[in-house]
């Protein structure tokens, strides 16, 4: 992957590989609503989901920082995401996850 496209913050290279929309969708599933399944969109192969899930589980130390960064992102719609989520949806979901994490 071209390094110039990596997110420029701690763990950004990992988030680049799994995708900001996928990360927020999966985190939303884990923290807010187990019925939310956009991260399981059939457009993702089983191998892709397994790889992303593994990366997600191995990068927990970055999650709060990533969620903060996502809430500030202005070009989330620049690249289509396979989760089918709009930029504002992703940012709202990220904010909801942060609120819940800080309340725990």
Question: Could you please describe the fold and organization of this structure?
Answer:
This protein has one domain. Helices cover 56% and strands 0% of the residues. The chain has helices spanning 12-18, 20-31, 46-57, 63-72, 87-103. 24% of the residues are buried.
Uncertain segments: none
Going by helix content, strand content and strand pairing, the class is mainly alpha
Helix tally? 5
Q: Report mean pLDDT, rounded to a whole number.
A: 91
Shape: globular
Compressed to H and E, one letter per element, the order equals: HHHHH
Count of the domains: 1
Helix content: 55-70%
N- to C-terminal distance: 36 Å
Q: Main beta sheet, described?
A: none
What percentage of the residues does DSSP assign to strands (E)?
Answer: under 5%
Total count of strands: 0
Computed Rg: 13 Å
Q: Care to give the gist of this entry?
A:
The chain has helices at 12-18, 20-31, 46-57, 63-72, 87-103.
Give the topology, please.
Blueprint: H1 12-18, H2 20-31, H3 46-57, H4 63-72, H5 87-103
List descriptors.
mainly alpha; 56% helix; 104 residues
